[in-house]
């Protein structure tokens, strides 16, 4: 197999690393830079506010003036002339405040460019970052997670600090769209030349794309892609405001999206490497046996999409050790003792019987993929051991107990007929009972049953509802039952309305602790590329792909799909007789089967 472009780039980068590391660094620092310096791999951009949501200028409306200057794009430089500044004043009894909207969810912080003050001393301000207007206005409760309150325990987002009279200052490192600034200093006036959001992101091209005659689907596809993009920091995170941890289960939908949108990216192998260092065998990944199962599934999917056999070989000992660890916990009758705690996703937690059935299906899925990995690694004994584990697990197939998560996994793994799974539970109620994480696997179950039209309708209903409520990225959790009488995230909540952010959530994400940019919610992006565009890598070693579009009610769809050999381009158009006319442009050497 020829060397993958991404691997070639990695080798070149390794050879040139010393030169790249020192490039542009002052000679004074170069002598011992290798011991003490790490270059930031992330890019930065400054974003001007899009609008002012609310302001409090006192009972006489005289505490804030010229705030419109903050909406003008600046140069980031403090200036002596002190012109074109927003003026904020506070008295003993009244404190000026502004709530700014930067237009989209961002990861990073805030830059203030000052234009002087009535005091020589620094002035006290309160800065609150929010993924919603409600969160930016919220009260913080770090001692107890509860509905109606926000938290600061992962990414500091409620900050009381002093800002200088002149010059500039940068604050914060979190996920946000809105920022509220309160001038707390008594009897003070400050001049603000600029308030800019700092976007911290990977500067990578969107190689994959999706477009059809339904704009709602187009927006859903790109929103899922952007959700994952923001979580591609130094490592792959679950959410930019929350844990900011490499979670192996959360990684699977993210990995699938990354491979359809960006193609090969080092954030996946780097994150898998880190996870193995953090959780050496016999520990479970993230302390949960389910996430060790997802590790195996992730390894299979990454190899299937990239063909990176060297990375797979690097993990061969861990993969083999994990297979043997699992084998020792499954007896001949199909009983397993992987761990007393079961986890699929949070919304399913109350259905213990259903979770048990789904968890067993997840074991089967992991062993199916581990079987293929072992064959690729030439480890035939481990490959056979995986089949043995699967056969033992099949001796005890449990009912799904009307849990969509469980039935979906059972359909995906062949433990249940996909049509039966959809008829009995997955399709029932449409998007009711869907979740942002396992919704992807519910869509996959629908695809296995040939229910493409139903799946598209659910994508538009469930994920589309988040867009209707102001989302620019997809959320950690969502429930269609939350919608009635709920206000969107991008405006103050009117009296008598529910706050879609602060008044809902459960488990570890009640209220404003709920992440509104969570990578595991990006499933529709992958699904639309795989099933509407219909592009799939069949055999990465033989450069074989398949194209089987399913347009449902759509008139046309087109897009691109990254592969290790280049980008595939397709367009599909439904003719008057219902047949689909397809045009395909393949990279050199790629064969459609």
From TrEMBL:
Pfam families given in the database record: Bac_rhamnosid6H, Bac_rhamnosid_C
GO BP terms in the entry: carbohydrate metabolic process
Domain Alpha-L-rhamnosidase C-terminal, first and last residues per copy: 543-591
Annotated InterPro entries: 6-hairpin_glycosidase_sf, 6hp_glycosidase-like_sf, Bac_rhamnosid6H, Bac_rhamnosid_C
Domain Alpha-L-rhamnosidase six-hairpin glycosidase span(s) in chain numbering: 207-397
Descriptive protein name: Alpha-L-rhamnosidase C-terminal domain-containing protein
Domain of life where this protein originates: Bacteria
SUPFAM superfamilies per UniProt: Six-hairpin glycosidases
Signal peptide: none
Organism whose genome encodes this protein: Phocaeicola vulgatus
């Amino acid at each position: 197999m020829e060397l993958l472009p991404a691997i070639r780039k990695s080798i070149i980068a390794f050879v040139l690393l010393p030169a790249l590391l020192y490039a542009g660094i002052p000679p004074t620092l170069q002598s011992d830079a290798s011991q003490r310096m790490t270059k930031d791999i992330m890019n930065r951009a400054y974003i001007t506010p899009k609008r002012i949501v609310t302001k409090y200028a006192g009972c006489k409306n005289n505490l804030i003036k010229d705030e419109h200057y903050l909406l003008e794009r600046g140069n980031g430089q403090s200036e002596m002339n002190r012109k074109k500044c927003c003026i904020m004043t506070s008295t003993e009894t009244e404190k000026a405040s502004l709530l700014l909207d930067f237009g989209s969810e961002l990861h990073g912080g805030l830059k203030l460019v000052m234009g002087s003050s009535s005091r020589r001393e620094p002035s006290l301000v309160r800065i609150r970052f929010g993924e919603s207007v409600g969160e930016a206005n919220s009260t913080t409760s770090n001692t107890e997670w509860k509905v109606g309150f926000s938290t600061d325990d992962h990414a500091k987002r409620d900050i009381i600090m002093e800002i200088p009279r002149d010059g500039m200052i940068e604050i914060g490192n979190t996920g946000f769209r809105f920022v509220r600034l309160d001038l707390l200093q008594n009897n003070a006036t400050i001049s603000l030349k600029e308030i800019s959001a700092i976007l911290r992101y990977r500067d990578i091209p969107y190689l994959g794309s999706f477009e059809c005659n339904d704009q709602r689907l187009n927006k859903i596809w790109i929103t899922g892609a952007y959700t994952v993009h923001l979580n591609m920091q130094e490592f792959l995170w679950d959410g930019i405001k929350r844990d900011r941890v490499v979670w192996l289960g959360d990684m699977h939908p993210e990995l699938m999206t990354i491979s359809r949108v960006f193609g090969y990216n080092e954030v996946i192998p780097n994150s898998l490497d880190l996870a193995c260092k953090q959780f050496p065998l016999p520990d479970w990944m993230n302390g949960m046996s389910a996430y060790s199962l997802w590790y195996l599934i992730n390894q299979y999917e990454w190899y299937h999409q990239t063909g990176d056999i060297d990375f797979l070989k690097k993990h061969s000992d861990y993969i083999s050790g994990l297979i043997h660890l699992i084998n020792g916990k499954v007896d001949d009758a199909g009983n397993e003792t992987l761990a007393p705690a079961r986890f699929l996703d949070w919304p399913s937690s109350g259905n213990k019987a259903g979770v048990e059935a789904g968890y067993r299906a997840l074991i089967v899925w992991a062993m199916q993929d581990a079987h293929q990995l072992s064959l690729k690694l030439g480890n035939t004994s481990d490959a056979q051991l995986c089949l043995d584990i699967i056969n033992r697990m099949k001796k005890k197939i449990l009912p799904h107990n009307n849990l969509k998560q469980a039935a979906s996994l059972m359909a995906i793994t062949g433990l249940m007929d996909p049509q039966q799974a959809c008829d009995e539970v997955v399709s029932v109620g449409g998007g009711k009972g869907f979740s942002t994480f396992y919704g992807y696997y519910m869509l996959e179950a629908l695809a296995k049953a040939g229910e493409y039209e139903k799946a598209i309708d659910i994508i538009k209903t469930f994920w589309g509802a988040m867009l209707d409520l102001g989302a620019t990225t997809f959320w950690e959790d969502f429930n269609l039952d939350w919608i009635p009488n709920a206000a969107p995230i991008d405006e103050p909540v009117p009296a008598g309305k529910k706050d879609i952010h602060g008044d809902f959530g459960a488990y570890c994400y009640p209220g404003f602790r709920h992440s509104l940019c969570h990578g595991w919610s990006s499933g529709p992006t992958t699904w639309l590329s795989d099933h509407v565009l219909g592009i799939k890598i069949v055999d990465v070693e033989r450069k074989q792909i398949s194209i089987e579009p399913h347009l449902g009610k759509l008139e046309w769809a087109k897009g691109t799909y990254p592969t290790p050999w280049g980008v595939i381009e397709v367009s599909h158009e439904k003719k008057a007789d219902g047949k689909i006319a397809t045009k395909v442009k393949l990279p050199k050497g790629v064969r459609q089967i």
